[in-house]
Amino acid sequence: MKFRKIVSAVLASVVAAGMCAANVFAVEDGEATFCFDTEIKSETFQSYGSVEQAGMKLTHTTFESKNGNGCIIVSEDCSGDIQQQYGGYFIDASCFGAEDFTSFENCTIEMSVKLCEGAEAFCENLSLYSDGTIWLTQPATGLSTEEWSTVSITIPDGANNTTVGFTIPTFKTYTGNIVYIDDLTITKPDGTIMENIGDYQLKKMVAEDTVSTGKNIGMTILLVVLILAIVGGIGLIVSSALRKFS
After folding, report:
1. Rounded CA separation 141/113 (Å)
2. How crowded is residue 235: how many other Cβ atoms within 10 Å of its Cβ?
3. Which residues contact 221 (CB under 8 A, 6 or more apart)?
4. CA distances (Å), origin 149, targets 30, 141, 175, 235
5. Would you give the DSSP letter of residue 155?
6. How many CB atoms lie within 10 A of CB 164?
7. What confidence category does residue 206 fall into, taking pLDDT thresholds of 50, 70 and 90?
8. What values do phi and psi take at 45, rounded to 5?
9. Which residues pair with 166 in a beta bridge?
10. Could you read off the pLDDT of 207-244 as tens digits, one per residue?
11. What is the pLDDT of residues 29-57, one digit of tens each?
12. 59-68 per-position pLDDT tens digit
């Protein structure tokens, strides 16, 4: 009986570890279908619903990213008096131009999200969604201004859903940036990731991220002087000790 309990506990631990590993899985740099490292093509992401009334916009920035050289910023200029409170941006399966890919059935879609400073109370409606045969939605919860979070949704078998996208973050009165979005990934039914659309760029190092050659030389000289001073100090201590006991 005790042996059975031990085996059950071990199996439970293995399953829990596997679930944790699955939860922290993330694509590597450049692997995402949409890396958002370049300007967004207007024909790729289409708007619907109350996007215009909410003043929702997608802009590209190189000052923030999870991977690569940039991401998109979702912003709003919302007066708060919108009657039809729905809408967002979406992509259609046809945008990939593949004859054998006509819907997102059995695909998993995920995106990385990070809150902009000061927008913590204005992201209550942001969700990843898919539409077609059935409407599916996955709210983006527990977001942070410090860490990137991953939101994902899987389209079930038999669901001929042709669109995926994300909704308007808020309908409250608000003007400004709300969230950063990076690495939107589409994993196909066979488990492979839909290849990048061509918007990946390796992250560029700016002046603030690099140390000048002169500063490197100065630090090297300082380090050498410090080492010599330490060695000299040790030598003096040893010499003094030898004279004392000789």
Report:
1. 10
2. 10
3. none
4. 18, 9, 23, 55
5. P
6. 23
7. low
8. -100, 120
9. 89, 128
10. 544 444 455 565 666 665 567 667 666 766 656 655 65
11. 999 999 999 998 878 899 999 999 999 99
12. 999 999 999 9
Residue with tokens 């003043």: 55
Q: Please state whether the predicted TM-score (pTM) of the whole model is above 0.90.
A: no
- Please write the tens of the pLDDT for every residue from 187-201: 999 999 999 999 999
For residue 182, give both structure tokens.
Answer: 């990076």
Q: Residue 82 is encoded by which pair of tokens?
A: 């919108």
Q: Is 218 exposed, middle or buried (0-12, 13-18, 19+ CB in 10 A)?
A: exposed
List C-alpha distances in Å: 205 to 1, 7, 59, 192, 208: 61, 51, 21, 31, 8
Distance CA(163)–CA(150), nearest Å, equals 19
Residue 63 vs residues 41, 94, 197, 225: alpha-carbon distances, Å? 19, 31, 22, 38
Confirm if 76 and 178 have CB atoms less than 8 A apart.
yes
**H-helix segments, the chain:** 2-23, 51-54, 213-245
Give the total residue count for the chain.
246
